[in-house]
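User: I'm designing a mutation panel for GtrA family protein and want to avoid disrupting the core. Could you give me a predicted structure to guide residue selection? Please restate the sequence first so the numbering is unambiguous.

Assistant: Good idea. Sequence first, for numbering, then the predicted structure tokens:
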Amino acid sequence: MVAPEGRSSGRGGLLQQLLRFTAVGVVGAVVDLSAYLSGLHLGLPTYAARALSFVCGTTTAYVLNRRWAFQVEGSAGRAAGFALLYGTTFLVIIGVNAAALALLPEWWWTVTFAWALSQGLGTMVNFVMLRTVVFRR
């Protein structure tokens, strides 16, 4: 089935969006984790490093998701919805990251695992909300 805009809809459209969202997520995650570890290496407090990394990863994700994964035109409403969603997600990932750092034993992998745990939860929430609210057609 083809949507009026020439894009596929239904199950195939969902799968294609999910695959593109995943690819965008990988790129955004690399940007996010790189900024997080760089911030920590430069001596930023954990919360500041995570905030910086979130902004870098989120900016990357918004541009790529809007243009490629969900293939929609930009608008002030979409940008505002995206900002609201990611602002909420930011609070969640900061909380999960902090909780993981407080609860996990201090090993060489703890910082990266805490980041991955918070990122994974945020990613699941974001896909559902982006698809159903922000970038719906």
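For picking mutation sites, this is relevant: Residues 10-134 form one domain. The helical segments are 10-41, 46-69, 76-103, 110-134.
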